[in-house]
Design brief:
It is a single chain. The protein has 13 helices and 14 strands. It is of the alpha/beta class. The chain folds into two domains: 6-172 and 350-381, 3-Layer(aba) Sandwich (Rossmann fold); 191-348, 3-Layer(aba) Sandwich (Rossmann fold), CATH 3.40.50.2000. α7 (205-218) links the parallel β8 and β9. The longest helix is centred in the C-terminal third of the chain and has 18 residues, at 331-348. The chain is elongated, with a radius of gyration of 22 Å. It starts with 5 loop residues before the first strand and ends with a strand.
Length: 382
């Protein structure tokens, strides 16, 4: 490893509340500033997470919020390229679909030595033309990072996997922020089942409401709270009224304190129909909650069925209801699963470990570690 520091640019879409945005911000906060001269840019460097960067002395900047269908996009790319050259950036790491579209060609034009793209979703929810565009952009990168083996499998036959360019680095969780609450020893009269998600159809929330309707007759003391906002809210509200769940299910709205929300719960449910690697599942595990989650995407790599949580098939309200009732009627099982989930989060998914893995990738991408490149077609897992 060279003694001098190396210039790195992290590039995201925005600094709004979200899983990818949160991972970018925590990586920026955690990187060793004696090794990396850090810049953070976004298409629009605005949102609640900006304060998290500023409190550690990072001033994120915007790359012009022009439309990606505008003729001005080329000018924005050239402008970013000039700035990369002026800053003598040696490594660009972009985090999401739109930041890939902007940062990867700009980095190529600026002849940045190491260019790292990301795919942090399964890609199945994108229209076909976006798949083609994104595939072309990934070919501009020297390395591609995904956050689960499930995403890696989707890309395994693509150019992204060739010549060992594809790397799996799992998401990290802040183990101090997301920690179990103080135990009172008394079992609450009401059991709260929580879920945190963007209110969109693919998050499986209508299925969760069906499960709540199934749980209600056999366990009327169980309540459900869903934190989040999104376009599905009117349909969820209508479903709650029509199914007679107004006293059972609360749509609690968006929260900037998910850690406090999770500590209010006794059980956590993640009913998603499509998921690469869920941040909130890791947060619930770190909080010591028994997790009921679907087998969608990369979730089985986080939750070990019967050991650190319970897994059910996506789109199965009855299976969700059965798992919740099992935990409600067997609090000792819930305690054991929650304790094992916390232990697994600490051992495998701490934020510090994620930062170390990215630093190792950066060193490798810049040729600082002396390691040979991974063999053709291989996937590097960290």
């Amino acid at each position: 490893m060279s003694d001098r520091s190396h210039s790195v640019l992290l590039m995201g879409d925005t600094l709004n509340l979200g899983g990818t945005e949160g991972q970018l911000v925590e990586l920026a906060r955690g990187l060793d500033r004696s090794r990396w001269r850090l810049e953070v840019a976004c298409i629009r460097a605005e949102g609640p997470l900006r304060a998290r960067l500023e409190e550690v002395g990072i001033q994120p900047w915007s790359c012009n919020g022009t439309s990606f269908t505008s003729p001005r996009l080329a000018s924005t790319i050239f402008g970013l390229s000039r700035r990369l050259r002026a800053l003598r950036v040696e490594l660009v790491h972009s985090f999401d679909f739109y930041s890939n579209l902007l940062a990867l060609p700009a980095a190529r034009l600026a002849r940045v030595p190491a260019i790292i793209a990301s795919q942090r979703d399964l890609g199945e929810l994108r229209p076909r033309h976006q798949h083609r565009i994104h595939g072309a952009m990934l070919r501009l990168a020297t390395h591609v990072v995904v956050n689960s083996a499930a995403v890696a499998e989707r890309l395994a036959r693509s150019h992204a996997a060739r010549s060992g360019r594809l790397n799996v680095i799992h998401n990290g969780v802040d183990l101090r922020r997301f920690a179990p609450g103080s135990a009172t020893g008394a079992r609450p009269e009401t059991v709260l089942v929580g879920s945190l998600a963007s209110l969109r159809a693919y998050k499986g929330l209508l299925e969760l409401l069906e499960a709540a309707a199934m749980v209600k007759p056999g366990a009327p003391h169980v309540r459900f709270a869903i934190w989040g906002e999104g376009p599905l809210r009117p349909e969820l509200e209508r479903h709650i009224r029509e199914r007679g769940l107004t006293e059972t299910v609360q749509l609690a709205g968006a929260t900037r304190e998910p850690d406090e929300a999770l500590r209010r719960c006794q059980i956590f449910v993640h009913p998603s129909l499509s998921e690469a690697s869920s941040n909130v599942v890791l947060e619930a595990m770190a909080t010591g909650l028994p997790v009921v989650a679907t087998t969608a995407g990369g979730t089985p790599a986080l939750v070990e069925h019967g050991r650190s949580g319970l897994l059910v098939e996506p789109g199965s309200p009855g299976a969700i209801a059965d798992a919740v009732l099992l935990l409600v009627r067997n609090p000792g099982l819930g305690y054991r699963l929650g304790a094992a989930a916390r232990e697994r989060a600490v051992g495998e998914f701490g934020m510090g470990r994620m930062v170390q893995r990215f630093e190792a990738l950066y060193a490798h991408a810049l040729g600082l570690d002396g390691r040979p490149a991974v063999g053709v077609g291989a996937v590097a897992r960290s």
